Fold:
Amino acid sequence: MIPREVFTETLLGFLDPVRRYLDDPSVSEIMINGPDRVYIERKGRLELTPAKFKNKESILCALRNAAQFVGKTLDEQHPLLEARLPDGSRLQAAIAPVASDGPSVSIRRFLKQALDFDGLIASGSLTPLAAATLDVLVRARLNLIIAGGTGSGKTSLLNVLAGLVPEGERTLVLEDSKEVVVKSPHVVYLEARPADPDGRGAVSIRELFRASLRMRPDRIMIGEIRGGEALDIVQAMVSGHGGCMGTLHATYPRDTLTRLETMALMSDVEIPLAALRLQIASGVNVIVQVSRESDGSRKISHITEVVELSPTGRYELQDLFAREYRGIDAHGAVLSELVPTGHVPTFLPALKSRGLELPRAVYEAAQSQPRPS
Structure:
């Protein structure tokens, strides 16, 4: 077996044209659109770089080496590659025949410096009050779904919230590719595995989830909910597994529940839609919505309670915090603030049963709301 260090140096040698961007902590993504067009994302903005590969074959050599590093095959019969680089960065590539213009590669950087609440507050992503509220929600073992678009910071926020899990709890993290890092002494990481070239050995997130339920979890986290495992996590939420967290792609809080519903219906279990909606409304307590703004910044836009399912089958939602937009400054930065709405959540008894309270300012915001006439 070739030592990991040799693989690492060989792979980085093939990626030498973009090596400096792999070493630059300010770069969040590297996009290779053929040998002559290499873009990077820095602070949410795309930049065309002077980097160039010698030819298409040089990119293919790098991709074949990356595929070998993770034990996968890349050829005309297997033209898509999802892999992880030695530093943890995520690589997604497509070659001919699906990429008609030649190899296309996207490398999502692995941040070596962990994000925390102080960093989110400093960037304006959330306020100290919203941070204190999220801290209470996590410690109270409420079930949270983090939703947003591609590159909006879902996984980064999940990492921050995972760091709030008390030390005395056992956490199981399930992922397709390891990105979540829990700062806890008692955490178990389980990673899905695709089939080999002969179609053998695949282990899905759903299989990991079912196994995790027999491993005495206090909390279960799914890096990204993509398919039928949505039903499994919803059923775990309603059967006593509090404190579950996961991310999925959706633009608004209501879309988040619709997406979760759609993915749950992708499972091999036939369940009436009305029953599924009841379980989702009962199991998911809070949606934390994130977005990437027009200036490239990543912000938390909503912290929303899932209240109940109405008699007409509609999800009843109430924002605890919502972002107020106030325009754009002279430098093109979006001016906004995440503010409390004045809604007092219905899950207060669950907080009090654990000796927890929301920050006083949340109640003060409720008292300042105009009373209906």
The chain has two domains: 4-108, 117-367. Residues 117-367 form a domain with the Rossmann fold fold (CATH 3.40.50.300). Residues 228 and 267 are 4 Å apart (CA to CA).
